[in-house]
Amino acid sequence: MIGDEYGAITLRLVDAGLSGIRVHQDLATGRRALERNAGALGMCEIADESARDRRAGAQHADPASIDPPLRAAFMPCELDASLLRGARLVLLQLPKALAELEEIADAVARWAAPDVTLIAGGRVKHMTLAQNEVLGRHFGTVQPQRAEQKSRLLVATEVLPVPEEPPFPVFDTVDAPGLGPLTLAAHGAAFAGARLDIGTRVLLEALSRETESLRSLSERSETKRGDSPHEPHHVSSRSPSASSRGDRGRSP
After folding, report:
1. What pTM, to 2 d.p., does this model score?
2. What architecture is domain 80-163?
């Protein structure tokens, strides 16, 4: 299951008696929502915040290390072979970004079973013919289904050969304000891709100014102390109270 924002589809599958469902959600908020909703419905136990945080990192852990109630119902995974290896049925909530769909389609064709069926669904108002074209680059057959209740399914089968290297992440070198050349890496779901969006550019400019301010403050501090750049700095370990006691015996 890929892109199940808050776990509605996953939990319906668990309620139907399925187990061992591998789930990928790009947003951390979605992963937490899935687990909390599962706990609220009694489908798995959620002991405390620390246990939830341990489970949130389950995609990086050995499946045997995950708590049994969670492992029996569903397993959070990253978009890689651990999610798709050997899968014969993949459910997908269609993303709006074509780059994200491209990365997902490549991953399914790359790691799932040769006879895998990808069922991708979305709201009709958010679906475009370009999504069919993206799926068509990775599957020999893409069949749109009849719309129902303003939603539609796309069924993709017959995986096509994939390139040796995955298409994502993509890399690009940009001129970051105040930092010079900066290499960016972006997955399909990344906003603005491997480019500096307006918000990130403003953040980098602010960090650059802050860094310059801290550097100037440090240099002024060194100058006031009169430290030689060739002599090591010594830090006293005496407490203020110890210094005061030592000064009492001195003559004014």
Report:
1. 0.71
2. 3-Layer(aba) Sandwich (3.40)
